[in-house]
Amino acid sequence: MTLWEEAAAEYPGLVPDLAEVAHGVNVFREAFEAHEVHGPSYRALLQEEPRAPGGLFGHGLWFGLQLAEPVPAVFVQPGLAPFEGLPIQQTPLSSRRLIGRRGFGWPKTTYAVGLPAPQRLADARIGAVGRAAKPIASAHGRDVVITGSQRSWVRALIPEFALGPLFGSWCEVAVTADAIGEIRELVVRDDGAVVGHVVGGQPGFYTLFQDIEYALRVDGAVLS
Fold it and tell me: 107: cis peptide before it, omega within 30°?
């Protein structure tokens, strides 16, 4: 199973909340595309970092340092309401939102997590080295992962990470707590299993890696 399939199986009680968060993300994107999201903070944000629709990358599970269990999270560019600050920030969201005439609810445990826009984007297939890698496995939250001599741990699992219409999106990605590895480098769990390959990240902050099984399922396509 891929990392997101594994997450759904591991945390079945969170599946309804995650579905509700996914709906809210879709409402926000539809409202943004319909020009129903206004305000100078949004305009300034998009002028600086035009990678994600409205500065919103997507949703997923967040494994915060002070959190005993993972929580549903919305991943946004720093500066997007409801907070402003340096990356990487996290804050609970209010439970009710209204954009234009579109209403939706966040589950009470939902967090907003600010991530700087990813750089070093991969636009190539995983290649033969990925196809030959054995054994493979799915990453889980708080797994220790390694690329070369660099180590970190998994802070987020995300079903789809949007980069905007001009850049596409990645499906089935994990976010590490530290920036590790280079583009297309394989990511190995500390037990030796290959869990993914690096597709992007922000130097000094985090790395994005895509689930290895998902990449192989789609014949090695990195961008989806």
Answer: no
* Residue 6 CB neighbour total at 10 angstroms: 18
Q: Whole-model pTM?
A: 0.87
Indicate the SS3 state at residue 27. helix
Burial of 203 (0-12, 13-18, 19+ CB in 10 A): exposed
Question: Would you say 93 and 106 are in contact if contact means Cβ atoms under 8 Å apart?
Answer: yes
Is 136 strand, coil or helix? strand
- pLDDT tens, position by position, 118-129: 886 765 455 544
Cα 197 to chain centroid distance, Å, stands at 14
Identify the CA nearest to 81 among candidates 123, 132, 109, 39. 39
Q: Which residue has the higher pLDDT, 221 or 202?
A: 202
* Res. 193: pLDDT tops 90: yes
State the average pLDDT over residues 174-183: 94
For residue 120, count CB atoms less than 10 angstroms from its CB and return exposed for 0-12, middle for 13-18, buried for 19 or more.
middle
